[in-house]
Design a protein that fits this description.
The structure holds 2 protein chains of 2 kinds. Chain A has helices at 3-14, 28-37, 53-65, 76-81, 83-91, 118-122, 140-157, 167-171, 187-193, 217-237, 258-272, 290-297, 313-321, 340-353; strands at 18-21, 46-49, 70-74, 96-102, 133-135, 160-166, 173-174, 241-244, 251-254, 277-282, 284-286, 302-307, 327-331. By secondary structure, chain A is α/β, with parallel strands linked by helices. The longest helix of chain A is centred in the middle third of the chain and has 21 residues, at 217-237. Chain B has helices at residues 15-28, 75-81, 114-120, 127-138, 145-155, 164-180; strands spanning 2-10, 32-37, 47-55, 67-72, 85-94, 108-112. Chain B has a 6-stranded mixed beta sheet with strand order 2-3-1-4-5-6, with helices on both faces. Classes of the chains: A alpha/beta, B alpha/beta.
């Protein structure tokens, strides 16, 4: 099935309580598949086509405040519209899942694949000091798996998770093993597991207030410190990445999402030319695998960062290695996908001929 | 064993659904599969292509430079992908509307006339299955017909399952086209 369809199936099977979205290419199959599967008749999951992206993210905010497992999905221009709501959800320390199947920008751009929303997803996007847990799938299987992982991390840390996919993994069809069907949590389970949620106190406890507003600066700074402490904990525990043959390599290619797979093919082609290339694929873009990249880069001749953008993740790679070796970028933009041989040519040109 | 295929033609000719049926047929044969469309805003009339990879190992890139098999259903696709067949690979093209034929000597070239064959069956809509028959015949990796039928069942909506025999017929017809050349 398609990556977008896998998201819909995985959401129902996770026991997701509600999906709120608004259609936009290249991720409309998420909403379409959910509507076709009609989970409201089986698990009781709510599926709403909202009047706009802004409405959808605020429905997510409301649902999350009651301890429900809720999600939304969109593509680049639509995710820009959601940023205010995402900042509020992060500030209120609420769990939620947001999917961005990126398309070429800026503006309305194209409908073809892109990775130009890296900065938006990883560095904030909305206003204020906050982070999303950002997962970058490179296969249809990971599209399915990261729904569960994204929700689990969101609830563990009371923090919104984002699946940052690109049009390739959204539209591509592959073999996928779907997770087992889980039951949605009961109201009692939510009360027990989410003591912070606005579930109706019925005289049992003090009022739970979910808000991102705190007019007293002293208190707001304390909230910020609490958020930062949580982010350090996530950085310590949840950094994920994949490495292929980095030990004996002379050069590293670092890329995320579907591009990492094109880079893997490029590595095979480069080996035919006698080059030793290793691959690093950050799976969590935040927290970023800084330590892993620093270690893998030791003794290497150079790093090529390949992205479907003008150079975004390369900044985090540079921070990781402190310019101790050449770090070059190769990217295509606007919806163009590089072929494996283009990546090999870029590696030779930027790291060998120009070195 | 890995087979890397691209099928390209006009939107509406059915290359995407042919690729889907091929991918599902491979899946039913326990292969790893990747189906990657070039999705444009056009549904009909523009160009469309789909990359299908069938492999007994994990598949890396869904995007490729060269292919084991290229299926070109119009001049534009033939010009673009004909030069990208691997040495010793296979090029199948529909001769309808082709004025500049391929001249490579280092690959196996199979011209077919799939539309006439589909019309002989009395069903122009089975065009893409005629093409798929030729493809299945040309492929070194042989998918058993029972798995192709399973693939058809899996990729067609249930209301169209009554058309499976027609599609099977078209596939068999397509196989004979290739044998002739």
């Amino acid at each position: 099935m398609k990556g977008n369809e896998a998201i819909a199936h995985a959401a129902i099977r996770y026991g997701c309580d509600g999906y709120f979205g608004y259609p936009i290419t290249p991720q409309s199959e998420v909403l379409e598949t959910l509507e076709a599967l009609m989970p409201w008749d089986t698990t009781g999951m709510v599926v709403v086509q909202a009047e706009s992206e802004v409405a959808a993210i605020n429905m997510v905010y409301g649902g999350a405040a009651t301890g429900k497992a809720v999600m939304t999905s969109s593509s680049s221009p639509g995710v820009s519209l959601k940023q205010e709501g995402i900042s509020y959800i992060a500030a209120s320390s609420l769990p939620a899942l947001i999917l961005n199947v990126m398309r070429g920008g800026p503006g309305l751009g194209t409908i073809q694949p892109s990775q130009a929303d890296y900065f938006q997803a990883v560095k904030g996007g909305g206003h204020g000091d906050y982070h999303l847990i950002v997962l970058a799938p490179s296969s249809v299987q990971e599209m399915a798996d990261f729904v569960g992982l994204g929700f689990d991390l969101a609830f563990k840390y009371r923090n919104p998770s984002m699946i940052l996919a690109d049009g390739i993994v959204g539209q591509m069809m592959e073999k996928v093993v779907l997770p087992e069907q889980r039951a949605r949590r009961t109201d009692e389970e939510i009360r027990e597991q989410c003591p912070w949620a606005a579930t109706g106190r019925e005289g049992r406890r003090k009022r739970n207030v979910v808000t991102s507003l705190e007019l007293e600066s002293d208190k707001m700074e304390i909230i910020n410190h609490q958020l930062q402490a949580k982010y350090r904990e996530i950085e310590a525990n949840e950094t994920r990445w994949e490495e292929i043959d980095t030990k004996d390599a002379d050069y590293l290619i670092i890329s995320f999402g579907s591009v990492a797979r094109i880079s893997t093919k490029a590595k095979e082609l480069a080996e035919e030319d006698g080059l030793k290339v290793g691959i690093i694929r950050p799976i969590t873009l935040w927290p970023f695998p800084t330590e892993a990249i620093r270690k893998a880069a030791e003794g290497k001749k150079g790093i090529l960062v390949v992205e479907l953008n003008a150079g975004q993740m390369i900044e985090d790679v540079r921070l990781a290695v402190h310019d101790s070796l050449p770090v070059k970028h190769f990217g295509r933009m606007g919806g163009i996908i590089p072929s494996p041989s283009e990546i090999v040519s870029a590696l030779k040109e930027k790291l060998i001929e120009q070195a | 064993m890995k087979t890397e295929i691209i099928a390209a033609g006009f939107g509406g000719q059915g290359v995407l659904s042919m690729g889907k049926i091929l991918a599902y047929s491979g899946l039913m044969d326990n292969m790893e599969v990747t189906w990657m469309p070039s999705y444009g805003p056009e549904q009909r009339g523009g160009t469309a292509n789909v990359t299908v990879i069938l492999s007994d190992e994990k598949i890396s890139s869904p995007v490729l430079d060269t292919y084991d098999i290229v299926i070109a259903l119009n001049q534009q696709s033939l010009d673009k992908f004909g030069p990208r067949v691997k040495k010793g690979g296979i090029l199948i093209y529909d001769t309808n509307g082709i004025h500049k034929h391929p001249e490579r000597g280092d690959i196996n070239v199979y011209p077919i006339n799939a539309m006439d064959a589909a019309l002989e069956l009395g069903n122009s809509k089975a065009y893409n299955m005629v093409v798929m028959g030729a493809l299945l015949e040309a492929m070194e990796y042989k998918i058993p017909m029972e798995n192709v039928v399973k693939g058809l069942k899996k990729s067609l909506p249930e209301r169209h399952h009554k058309l499976i025999p027609v599609n099977q017929q078209a596939i068999e017809k397509g196989r004979t086209l290739l044998k002739k050349n």
